[in-house]
Specification:
Elements (H helix, E strand, L loop, with lengths): L32 E2 L4 E4 L5 E7 L4 E5 L8 E8 L11 E7 L4 E10 L2 E4 L4 E7 L1
Antiparallel strand pairs: 1-2, 2-3, 3-9, 4-7, 5-9, 6-7, 7-8
């Protein structure tokens, strides 16, 4: 049977090429991920989201699940707590991205006006390219 392509009525998506530029459809390899406790997700356009949890200390130098090809730009940490772990306590988490592969986070609290390191698990998220 001969099909006249002018009458197939393909939707616009069927006419697009594969890639990451404007008007292209992303290939599934653009969404590589590891959705574990410490994981990552690649998004089209090169943005990478990474996350994890650190336990057992107040200061952590840690490696990202994968290196950022050009570097990380955002690091957010949040102290983990439970109902039995002084939920009224206000603790802070500070840190920085050291390089494409590593970061530093520390948990602290203020006692009688004096800041001190405070052992707390930390949930963290990082964005980069």
């Amino acid at each position: 049977m001969v099909i006249n392509h002018g009458n197939v009525r393909l939707g616009e998506a069927a006419k697009r090429g594969v890639g990451t530029a404007a008007n292209q459809l992303p290939d599934m390899s653009c969404f590589m991920s590891s959705v574990t406790g410490n994981g990552y997700m690649n998004l089209p356009g090169g943005l990478i989201l990474q996350w994890g949890i650190l336990t057992g200390a107040s200061k952590y130098t840690f490696s990202f699940p994968i290196a950022f090809p050009t570097g990380g730009s955002v690091l957010v940490g949040m102290a983990h707590t439970t109902d039995v772990a002084e939920v009224s306590l206000i603790s802070t988490v500070n840190g920085f991205i050291k390089d494409k592969k590593m970061a530093y986070l520390a948990s602290s609290r203020v006692v009688n006006g004096v800041p001190q390191f405070y052992e707390r698990s930390i949930h963290w998220y990082a964005l980069g390219r």
